[in-house]
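Forwarding these from the shared drive since the link keeps breaking.
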Amino acid sequence: MAKFRIPILIAMISGCAMVIREFIPHKPFDILNTTFQQWYMIIACFAILLGVGSLLSVHGEKIRRRRAGWWYSIVLIAGFVTMVFFGMVGGISERGEGFIGQGFNWMFEYMYNALQSTMFSILAFFVASAAYRAFRARTPEATLLLLAAFVVMLGRVTAGEYIYDKLPIITEWIMDYPNTAGQRAVMIGIGLGIVSTSLRIILGIEKSYLGRE
């Protein structure tokens, strides 16, 4: 169908153009990166509008039908409207005057950042629980992971140096060599996955972004 062929054609042309740009950094390919970034910002603006509409629609329907947790939807919409109001009327610059001028920055600094810190603090307990389950020495690999984690955590605190003065050096060696090697292996795998997915999109094999398999 034409409505699927046009997006696929656009993706193919854009992908091929960006690949050619990396190998031929001359006109007209050298300006493609800047041009595509400008187009991306324009599309992102429309995407934000769609996201706002979807947010208000979903949570408005939840409030109207009194579904479970609808009070949270009221708080979300009220916070969203308040931030938009102060951002549009008073601006987001720190040079604003009065409560209206400083309202956006005040709420961002003392409400949003505080809530964000609280959320990450709560997540720390989930991380500790997941680490406890993952570090059970049931297999040789899990035992090695447990020992490495124990050495690294102990080497990062002052008490570790008092226990064994070489422990910080061992910790740095683990972080610089085995850990870096593992991270690079993961990044190589991610890179290969990106290349394969990009080729599938450019060749028109991958169509999931169109909303169908």
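-- next protein --
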Amino acid sequence: MRAPIGHFDGARPAPACLDELTSPVADAVRTWRGSVPAEQILYVDTEPEWADTATFVEHYGRDLLERSANCVVVAGKRGGEATLAACVVLSTARVDVNNAVRRQLGARKASFAAMDTATGETGMEYGGITPLGLPGDWPVLVDAAVVDLPYVLVGSGRRRGKLLVPGKAFAELPGAVVLEGLGLA
């Protein structure tokens, strides 16, 4: 199957590639109940050494830069309590942690979670964290620009491989909150 975006050797429906995904991501694909059929979530095999955005677009197509999203784990703190959440913004933007995230989480302070926390709590590899398969009680803050795209490239839970996901599917993830202005240019 030809990938709807990028220059990949091929794309396969994610339900047919569960062995390529980390356990939490495979479980999310297996139990997917969104209005977008799970078969429209696609897996593409990629080289792990090219996982970082700048290197990735050089190898798989510069057009992916504006069609890719990063998923980062943040921690909001208030009164000694910490809330972990995920933020999904286009690769050309950065997460507005100090304003949009802090307000949405009702936190006095918000920051990016430590790598060990992000990987340990998600069960995913650093550089491959994806919004599919996150802990069910986490808020998943999604920039509206991500939802508006026909297809978005995101991590697969591992540094090897990526998922191509219809943008509107992000609004249907457990805990999803779509926000205007979550990503800053």
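The chain has a mean pLDDT of 95. The two ends are 33 Å apart (CA to CA).

- D.
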